[in-house]
Design goal:
The chain is mainly beta. The protein folds into two domains: 31-41 and 180-388, no CATH class; 47-170, Jelly Rolls. The protein has helices at residues 38-43, 173-181, 225-234, 244-256, 338-351, and strands spanning 31-35, 53-58, 63-69, 74-85, 89-91, 117-121, 130-131, 135-139, 144-150, 158-167, 205-207, 213-216, 219-222, 238-239, 270-271, 274-275, 278-282, 291-304, 307-322, 329-333, 354-361, 368-370, 376-378, 383-388. The longest helix has 14 residues, at 338-351. The chain starts with 30 loop residues before the first strand and ends with a strand.
């Protein structure tokens, strides 16, 4: 076919081709970047508020109250009304005890009663809900918009409404600024204390028992063991059981107590030649075997700002795949592992458990690799470092 002349300036490619955005440059190796917390960003946005707000919670969805709150302030709640759950159970704002069928349901807040009034600050998935009930005072974990909901699973029909009166305290601009906009007021900002050299002797990746390199080290925490455990708990993470025997016993006790079991053990991996010191997970009870946020943490011999430095590897299980070492079935992780690093960071920020945070790109960052079982993953190579309160 003879060539066809194109008018001046015409594209030579397909007529429906669209310009592609330039690829985002990878972070520079050997760099430290301070992280602005959600608390700091939202604290400056809180406007003048009324003495009280009256809102109505309907249906089993998160409802935007229109009320902006500040980290650390105490709000007063008073709720009245009723929901009918599944067509045969009546629940007031204080909720009702769960039945055995409820163990097979996925509730927004696993620790709360069925039908109880619950809340959370911000609409991000990582923000962990908290109990409110019929009345009482609740301390806001972070700054942002307040959302309310009835604690009911999507498959449990919830019909009715709660009338809720919310009374915020008188807004003190100075205290709000101190709670969010100046997270390093009592501790020096971790971005000034940490450097890429701090990770020079820390392996970039964890390994299995045979020494096969696997998941990358993508976060670090500066704090005591008590602070580490308290931070994960506040952010909705649970410590997993270490053995199958523990899991069986814990599962039986949870069932007898009509509580969903979420502490399923995870495999043992190694760093510094030893197994993880702590293991945590967040996930829905029914999906916990195949899908969950999970991570492992190791104590290092280093200190940051006088506090012990812990490092860890966070990944998100999204299903199953074939283990390329032996052909058996194993967990498949989300190959974009930076998403799990950000989920951890957001969950800690929403819970208000760190005073400052920074991204550190080590001199030899991990960009692309494979897990010990053969699955591919990619990263920008940064490590999120948080200094715990």
């Amino acid at each position: 076919m003879p060539a066809v002349a194109l008018p001046p300036g015409a594209a030579s490619g397909p007529v429906d081709a669209q310009p592609q955005p330039a690829a985002k440059a990878a972070p520079t190796a050997g760099k430290v970047e301070p992280i602005v917390s959600m608390r700091a960003a939202k604290s400056a946005e809180i406007p003048k508020r009324k003495k009280s707000y009256d809102v109505t919670v309907k249906d089993a969805v998160w409802m935007d109250t229109g009320v902006d709150v500040a980290a650390g302030e105490v709000l007063s709640f008073e709720a009245k009304g009723q929901f009918t759950l599944g067509g045969n159970r009546e629940a007031g704002p204080e909720g009702v005890e769960r039945g055995f069928k409820d163990l097979l349901r996925i509730f927004p807040l696993n620790s709360a009663k069925a039908g109880e009034l619950i809340g959370r600050v911000s609409s991000v998935e990582a923000s962990y809900p908290f109990e409110i009930g019929a009345q009482g005072n609740v301390t806001m974990p972070t700054s942002g918009r307040l959302f309310l909901r009835v604690n009911a699973s999507d498959d449990l029909e919830a019909a009715g409404e709660f009338k809720v009166k919310i009374a915020p305290p008188k807004l003190d601009a100075a205290k709000v600024a101190a709670s969010g906009a100046a997270p390093g007021a009592t501790q020096e900002d971790v971005s000034k204390l940490i450097s890429p050299s701090a990770f020079a002797e820390i392996p970039r990746r964890v390994s299995d028992q045979a020494g096969n390199a696997g998941d990358m080290v993508n976060f670090a925490l500066a704090g005591t063991k008590e602070q580490v455990e308290a931070a994960f708990k506040a952010a909705g993470w649970v410590q997993v059981d270490k053995t199958v025997e523990e899991a069986v016993l814990h599962g039986i006790l949870s069932t007898l107590g009509r509580e969903a079991y979420t502490e399923m053990p995870m495999s043992t991996l190694y760093l510094f030649g030893r197994p993880q010191d702590l293991s945590f997970a967040r996930g829905d009870p029914l999906k916990i075997a195949a899908e969950r946020h999970h991570l492992r943490v190791w104590l290092t011999d280093r200190r940051v700002g006088g506090a012990p430095l812990w490092v860890g590897s966070a990944t998100h299980d999204i299903g199953f795949e074939t283990d390329q070492r032996n052909g058996s079935v194993t967990h498949k992780i989300d190959p974009k592992v930076d998403g799990e690093r950000e989920f951890l960071l957001q969950s800690f920020d929403a819970a208000g458990v760190y005073s400052s945070a920074a991204y550190v790109t080590p001199a030899d960052p991990v960009r692309e690799a494979r897990t010990a079982t053969g699955g591919e993953f990619s990263s920008d190579g940064r490590i999120a470092v948080m200094r715990l309160k």
